[in-house]
Every structure is written in C-alpha cells, then in structure tokens.
C-alpha cells in the first residue's frame, strides 16, 4: 500500500473525529426499499448471527463497574470481563473457563483513564461516553484471523447488506523497532474475501497494534471502516469494527513474548452501526437517541435539534442536545450498576458528567429545574429491554439524578452570591483570592468545577489568582498522597507464561478441599487438620520456574494440595507454616497464599533448601483462621440483618475481612440512622444467641439460579458452587417452595465459616461512612472486641452524662465554666475516635454538640455580666500593649482584642506582664 495513501487515510480518520461532514443533515439510505432496521433489531441480528450461524455462546454484558480490576475506572471494552482468560488466571471451575466462542453486547463507558472520550462528546457525531460494544471472541485458538475476518465480512455485507464498496479495512503494517513483521496474513485474508486492494490500508503500531495496558496480552488488530461519503472520491471514514488478534505478551521489561494461547477479541460500536444501517451520518439521528432529543425539545421548549456541529452550531444548541442526551444515558447506566456520583475515582467522574449535563441543559437549553431526572424514563424505555437492571433501578436513578441536579443548582446560586460578596471587598486591580475560588471548586466545598468558577469570574471581568490556586492544588495533592491507604503489596504471582506452561504440562489445579477439613470438638473448640503435600513447582521472586530454592530465598511454592485458604471472596488469605516431612524442626513460614487460574501459590522464605518432589506438611495459623471464620460468618449475619432492617431490596456491594475487623459496603439511599444501626446489631445478636448450625454444601450452579432471595454478587462463580446457609440445611434452603433464603442467611460463598453461629459472640458496628452517594461502608468487630467496644461506649456515655450534670448545676466562676467547656471538647475528641458502637457515637456526638454550645454561652454570660476589676480591664490592658506596638485595641472589661506590629514579640510580652503586675 502506497504510504501516501495510508497517510491520507489516516489524516481523514483524524479529521473525521470532528468533521462536520458526518453531521450532514440529509438521510441517505443506501437501500431505498425496506425501512431502516431498529437498533434493537440490529443488536439482535448481531447476537443471533454469532449464536445461530457460528455456534457462539451468548453472555450477558458485565456491569460497567470493573470487577476486581483497579487499573480501570469503568468497563470500557467488551474484553474487560474476559481478561482472566487472556491472562490465564481464570478459575478452572468457573463457567468462564469453558468459554471457547462467545458473543455479547457490552455496556462501555469511556470517560476516564486510558480511554477517555468525554471531550469529544457533543463536538462530534460518533463518540459517546456510554456506548454499546458488540463483540465476538474465540479463546485459546478456537478460531483465529481467517474465520474472524470472514464472519465479520459476512455479517456486514450479507446480513446487514452494507455495500462492499463502502467498506475499507486496515491491517498492522509492522514495527521494525519492536521487531514486529507486518500482518500480511490479515491483508491476504481481506484480499481473498474480495475486498478491493485500494480499500486495504496498513498502519503502524499506534493505530493497529492493540495493548491492554503497559504490560499484558496484546497483538495486531485489523479494523473495518465505513465510508460516509461513498461517492467514489475521497473517503470519509468512520471506524466501525476492530478485530484484535491477541498473540503476544508485553513483559515488564518492555519486550514482547509469544503467548501460550492465542485469542480473537472484537468490538463494534452499536450506535455507529445503527447510524450506517439507518442511513444517517450521525449516531444521534438514530432511534437510540431521537426519543431523547425529542424529550429534550419538549422539556426545554427549544427549537428542534438540527444536527449542526462546529461553527455552524450557533449558540451551541445542538451540542447541548448531544451532551445532555449522551450524559443522561451514561448516568442511568452507571447508577443502575451501582456507580453513583461521588467524590473520588469513577464516582467523581460521574459527578462531573452530571454537572456538565446540568450546565448545558440550564445554561444553553434553559431547562427547568428537575429536567434531567425527567429524561431517565426515556433512557429506560430505549435500553431497558437489553439491560433489565435499568428498569429495576429506574426509581433510584431518577432520585439520585434529581437530587444531584438540585444540589448543583443550589451550589451555583450560592457560588454566585459568594463571588459577588467577595468582589465587594476587592480593590479594582485586585486578583480574585485563590482561597475563595478553591472553596467553591470541586476540590473545595461547593463542588463547582474550577473552569466554571473561572468562567463566572470572567463574566464579571475579574482575574483569578492562578498562582495561588496552583499552590493550593499542589498542597491538596500532597495531602491526598499522605492520606492514601498504603498500596497493598501484590505478593508473588504466577505470570501468564508460568500459567500457560502448567496448563501445557496438564498439571491439575491445586486441590484445596482440605481447607474445609475442620471440626467442632464437643468442648466447643475447633480442630484443624494438617495436610501433607508434594512440591510440584518452585518459583523465584520474579516468577521464574525453578527446580529448587536455596537457604534464605523468598519463593513461591506450588503443591498438589493444600489446606491454606487463598485470598478470595473478600476473606484474607491464611497464614501459617510448612515443614519438610522428616525434618519437622525447621519451619518455613508461609505469610500468604494466592490463587491464580486454579493454582494456589504459597509464599515462603526458605530457611533451608527446598526442591521439587519434596513432601511437606502444612499447618495453618489456627487463631488467625478462626478469626477469619468468625468474621466471615458475622459478615453473612450482618448482610442478612441489613436486609431485615432496611428492606429486602438491600444490596451488598462488597466486603472484606481479616481476624481484626470486617468491612461491608451496602447500597443505601441515606446513611443509617442510630436506630437502624441498633436494630441491625440486635438482629445479628439474636442469630448469634440461638447458636444456629451453619450448613455448607457444594451444589450445581444451575440449582441456585432461581432461588427467591438468594443474591448473586457481581462475581464469577465456580460450578459447582458452595452454598452457606444459617439454620437451614442447604437442600431445604434451595428448595424453591421453602422460601428459606427470604427468612435466613443463605449465600453463595467459598469462604471458611464457623459451624455454629454462637462463636461470633457479639457484633458491634464501630464505623460508618459514605463511600459515595448511595454506598455506605460499615466497619464491624466481633467477639471480645465487640464487648470492649460496648464497654468503651458505656464509659464515654457516663462521662458525657456526668459533664451534662455539672453543666446543669451552673457555675459562678469563669475559670470553672471554661474548664467545663474544655472537658466537652476533650470528650468530643474521644467520642469521635473511640472504637465504640456507631449508633452510640452518633447519639453522644449530638448530645455533646448541645452541651458545648451551652457551656460556651455560660462562659460568655459570666464574662460579660460578672467582670468586677474596673481599674484593670481587659480593654485597658490590650490598649496598653497594642499602642506600644503602634496598633489599637478594643473590647470589654473581660475580653479584648487588638492589632499591632512588632519585630520583638518578647518585648511586647514583657510590656504586657509589667502592666498587669503594676495594676494588681
Ligand atoms: P475511535 O478511533 O473512533 O475513537 P477506537 O479505536 O477508540 O475508536 P476501539 O477501542 O477499537 O475504538 O473500540 C471498538 C469499537 O467501538 C470502535 O470501532 C467503535 O465502533 C466503537 N467505539 C469506540 N469508542 C467509541 C465511543 N466513544 N463512542 C461510540 N462508539 C465507540
Ligand atoms: Mg477511541
């Protein structure tokens, strides 16, 4: 392919992003006869094509909230949920491990992180913050380039009937620097499918080599583009479909290695495909968006949407239409998946999106208050069949959007007021103070984006103190980095090559069933068995497989079986030690075990040499394990109690536990009241008091599918799956007629649990905070820690009671009143930080606030009403000192303040002391 042609096409593609040409107002269906297919029909046709013609399994869209992947803010591609397959870490007992060829329609959000299209939204006619990605996958070499290209071509040209001459394709032209050859295989496949040679272009790594991140699986891709112009002249290309051939791994040192298994990963934007099939140049002129645009017109009473972009879009009305329509879809989908507008990470991005939508709707479209929320039902109507979670949460979405819109509008009003007030204090050439702008901004109090604050100032013709603002921003960053939770050390991992090698050798996954081998002695204590195992493989710290390790070496051990619980399902990993059989006096401490693709890697520092084939005996740290068991069973009881108290729709969002404490995130409309917190604790205590049996059993995953009340977290479950049921045998709990899961705690869970609830002892919620709007994080302790927390609460309640009594007795003496006030402050600090019941903390905080106010009033009264040393008044004293410093002073007989300047503070203090001594 001539380089000039490739460059021309590249320029076209880049230019296209904001090209007004795709904003053409005319509808140009390429086939005049049948009416254009609806978006629903287009989506369905894609899925049935891959299912019925090519034997693909259909899988549902994953939530837009990434599952256990801190590198992502939002799910931004269909492949995200299949990452464990590419990395080789998929649990072999999960349904996903069996996936060979699958297809789906994935909800994607590109509004932050590596893929961020937020700035393009509204300006062009092809990028959205939320869009649907249609994809098909072939895992482990099930099929590769030829079949993937053939299927795509067949679907586009035969099923959807897109004329072949409107399609262009690109392939990877190689990267000599990285030692990568051009992907001529893909080029030849396209030519063999009949694509005209002039429509086959090659590009470099930036366009046609796809990487998941800085490291990890990657490979060349081939893209299918559609020519919007279609007049045989210069093409106007828009990318429709990207076919990625994953065959390499980017190593930590930057080099590329072949992957043990190859995969096909494709993605096509539904909105763009529908635009093509509905004969329009804009995704907004499709039935996915037109109901929203209509609703915007009606709701705001503005002139109809005309699809103009750039300079032609006078007053940015059409851009505002697009921004609002796009953003309300994103907000609805995210909130339905449990990501609500908030203060950091993805929630913060969502908050910005909401505020951007409010600004465009109110400032450009002159929307009435409450307008954004009124668009939610339109989104639910267009997308609710494909993504039922939207219907399920529609009321909550409306509420959240409306509340946030109202809050933002109120902030805007207050912001304007504060700006006006500040301006009154400023001289004509003064800069607007950075502190005030900061307090108005997203990082400060009112949550107005800084660019908006600047705009508001610009309207007033004032300049902002930008240097001061930069300093504040830097201080904030430093503060945050100090506050950030220390990143958890990742520990030793099996990399994609090690996993591929184990799979190639047919090494079976680690048998970790002995982790469940424990029993309850008649005395009430637990007996944990040991486990004998063989060393199958050893790994050095950098993940290299070795046959032996030497003294003092940190290493990873793969055994044929284990009784260690590897970190998963929110339960901390076991710790303990192992010994070599026959050499029981040398302990190899094992601080943690991690699971990867069904293989459990034990981390150890070898005090002696160890080699493959050695027999070892494993011992878990029993106190640690028992602590985890107590906390895990308590977590289930807490989950159950929350549903009892807050209603059956209450959803768990996540949890984590170790022997010290348990953390539980729950979706809530508002913070829990002290009464609710107490009620939750009461329900748990009741279940603990009854010392109910905890039943655990593995069952086929299918048996759990329709059990009323049984919840599935957003997790990949193994099949068979373990069911944990409190008080009711598992078979009965799963019997649809029993309704048991509505009446007791029944959960799918791989954790290690107590065999009876009594050992939880007690549970106290000691902390509660809003993680983001709609999510509350609870911290709880159990057993003795819970008892101690109650005692601390009692003691503090008594102190507060005593202080209240002292206060109510009244005082004639300022010093005594001041001491009381100080005591209130000290008590408030203690109550704020103590490990005590949260409900009680909240009650005492409320009481202390009132008491503190009363104490302060009492001091003021005594000070003003009681002063009797007229010769030596505070005012006279202050005046004497301040006038000495060239300043002034004012006040009453008992309190005074003043100003003055001095380079010698000591001298000023000496003057003060001398004056006082002279008077007394
Ligand atoms: P573009 O260059 O147009 O931004 P991309 O290279 O970022 O696209 P991919 O990451 O390959 O796109 O995603 C696969 C497909 O998803 C694209 O071919 C396109 O059809 C669609 N797509 C990507 N980003 C968006 C978006 N922001 N809005 C709508 N569709 C999108
Ligand atoms: Mg893009």
Average pLDDT score: 89
In CATH, the homologous superfamily of the largest domain goes by the name Bira Bifunctional Protein, Domain 2
CATH topology of the largest domain: BirA Bifunctional Protein, domain 2
Oligomer: single chain
Distance between the termini: 101 Å
Q: Do you know the CATH architecture of the largest domain?
A: 2-Layer Sandwich
Largest sheet: 9 strands, mixed
Portion in beta strands: 15-25%
Total beta strand runs: 32
Q: Name the shape in a single word.
A: globular
- Spell out which ligands are present: adenosine-5'-triphosphate, magnesium ion
Tally of individual domains:
6
Roughly what percent helix? 25-40%
Low-confidence stretches: 1-32
Determine the number of helices (DSSP H or I, runs of at least 4 residues). Answer: 26
Keywords: Aminoacyl-tRNA synthetase, ATP-binding, Ligase, Metal-binding, Nucleotide-binding, Protein biosynthesis, RNA-binding, tRNA-binding, Ubl conjugation, Zinc
Protein name: Alanine--tRNA ligase
EC number: 6.1.1.7
Family: Belongs to the class-II aminoacyl-tRNA synthetase family. Alax-L subfamily.
